[in-house]
């Protein structure tokens, strides 16, 4: 049994570091260095959770329950739902890193957590791409937008996005597995235990599909849409251009900063099959880049919604309406209490009856 575990660990060590970085052979100095970097990744994840949960919950509350249903509010609602569900499962990953990559939650939560993470990560990225396309068509092709930009068509797009995101997250349900090593449980991608060629092929294919569909395609789409939007709007009005420029720049830069390191390290990870020289770099870089990618889920409501002047106006109006209703209830309750107290003073018999 011990020989089997050693063999499995050797095979495991040669091909998979995506969210599995435990290494019992690391010396104390290297462990201290890696531990410091892993704590930085934990801080990023905690920051994403603390800021993202209330931020996305606020967007869900207003777009889902308070405001009129429009195409735009549906985009933002589903984007916030994707980020919110993704962040709800983030404490499991935070615990995993905090316990030195020990997974005590069982194989099914290992699979479910990875699937939810992949599902909502891709759904979030896809909705960012859809919002970019929608903004371009709405501003540059108003006739086409008026004809096809309907609630029914937007619901169809939303269903397609969630189905595609589910398809992208599906491999996590199949390949995620747990492995016991030295009283340590790892949650990792078990592409194959014995067939090296099949293992390499699956790892390469899934990584490149993730990079192309989950990064390059959305980045290319957003860049083209926003560049065309900037040039078109600039020709029409300098004033309108200035309003949109910083929002567009912030959106593209946030996407680049948060997701580029994650996908670069995913590609770099593929070289570990042929050369283990960068083992320590990957052990440090992948958790750090993962935490940075997770941070994008808390930035989305800020960059896409909260900096919008229209959203700010509607948010203030909604909050004012809620406060007005609450104060009205308190006022009515207070008035009713005063009336009851006055009636009891004028009619002591009522109080005696009540007693």
Automatic annotation (TrEMBL):
UniProt record similarity statement: Belongs to the G-protein coupled receptor 1 family.
Residue stretches making up the G-protein coupled receptors family 1 profile domain: 55-304
Membrane topology: Multi-pass membrane protein
GO biological process: glucose homeostasis; inflammatory response; phospholipase C-activating G protein-coupled receptor signaling pathway; positive regulation of cytosolic calcium ion concentration
Organism: Capra hircus (Goat)
Membrane spanning residue stretches: 36-62, 74-94, 114-133, 154-175, 208-233, 245-265, 285-307
Claim: Disulfide bond is one of the keywords in the record: yes
Subcellular location: Cell membrane
Keywords attached to this entry: Cell membrane, Disulfide bond, G-protein coupled receptor, Glycoprotein, Membrane, Receptor, Transducer, Transmembrane, Transmembrane helix
Stretch forming the signal peptide: none
Superkingdom assignment: Eukaryota
GO molecular function, one term: adipokinetic hormone binding
Role according to the record: Receptor for the chemoattractant adipokine chemerin/RARRES2 and for the omega-3 fatty acid derived molecule resolvin E1. Interaction with RARRES2 initiates activation of G proteins G(i)/G(o) and beta-arrestin pathways inducing cellular responses via second messenger pathways such as intracellular calcium mobilization, phosphorylation of MAP kinases MAPK1/MAPK3 (ERK1/2), TYRO3, MAPK14/P38MAPK and PI3K leading to multifunctional effects, like, reduction of immune responses, enhancing of adipogenesis and angionesis.
InterPro entries per record: CML2, Formyl_rcpt-rel, GPCR_Rhodpsn, GPCR_Rhodpsn_7TM
Cellular component aspect of the GO annotation: nucleoplasm; plasma membrane
UniProt xrefs under Pfam families: 7tm_1 (PF00001)
Protein name (database record): Chemerin-like receptor 1
């Amino acid at each position: 049994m011990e020989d089997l575990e050693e063999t499995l660990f050797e095979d495991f060590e040669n091909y998979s570091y995506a969210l599995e970085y435990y290494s019992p052979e690391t010396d104390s100095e290297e462990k201290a260095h890696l531990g410091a970097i892993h704590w930085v990744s934990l801080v990023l994840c905690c920051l994403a959770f603390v800021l993202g949960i209330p931020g996305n919950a606020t967007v869900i509350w207003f777009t889902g329950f308070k405001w009129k249903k429009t195409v735009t509010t549906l985009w933002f609602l589903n984007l916030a739902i994707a980020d919110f569900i993704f962040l709800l499962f983030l404490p499991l990953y935070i615990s995993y890193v905090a316990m030195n990559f020990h997974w005590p939650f069982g194989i099914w939560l290992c699979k479910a957590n990875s699937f939810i993470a992949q599902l909502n990560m891709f759904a979030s990225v896809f909705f960012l791409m859809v919002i970019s396309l929608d903004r371009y068509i709405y501003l540059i092709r108003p006739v086409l937008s008026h004809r096809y930009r309907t609630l029914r068509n937007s619901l169809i797009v939303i269903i397609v996005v969630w189905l595609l995101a589910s398809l992208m997250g599906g491999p996590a349900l199949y390949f995620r597995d747990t492995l016991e090593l030295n009283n340590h449980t790892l949650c990792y991608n078990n592409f194959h235990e014995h067939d090296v060629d099949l293992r390499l092929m699956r790892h390469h294919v899934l990584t490149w599909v993730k990079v192309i569909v989950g990064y390059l395609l959305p980045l290319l789409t957003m860049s083209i849409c926003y560049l065309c939007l900037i040039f078109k709007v600039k020709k029409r009005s300098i004033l309108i251009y200035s309003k949109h420029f910083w929002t567009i720049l912030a959106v593209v830069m946030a996407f680049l900063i948060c997701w580029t390191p994650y996908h670069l390290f995913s590609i770099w990870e593929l070289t570990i099959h042929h050369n283990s020289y960068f083992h320590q770099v990957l052990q440090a870089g992948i958790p750090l880049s993962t935490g940075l990618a997770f941070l994008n889920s808390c930035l989305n409501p800020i960059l896409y919604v909260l900096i919008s002047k229209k959203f700010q106006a509607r948010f203030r109006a909604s909050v004012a309406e809620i406060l007005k209703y609450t104060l009205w209830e308190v006022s009515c309750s207070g008035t009713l209490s005063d009336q009851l107290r006055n009636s009891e003073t004028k009619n002591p018999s009522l109080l005696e009856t009540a007693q």
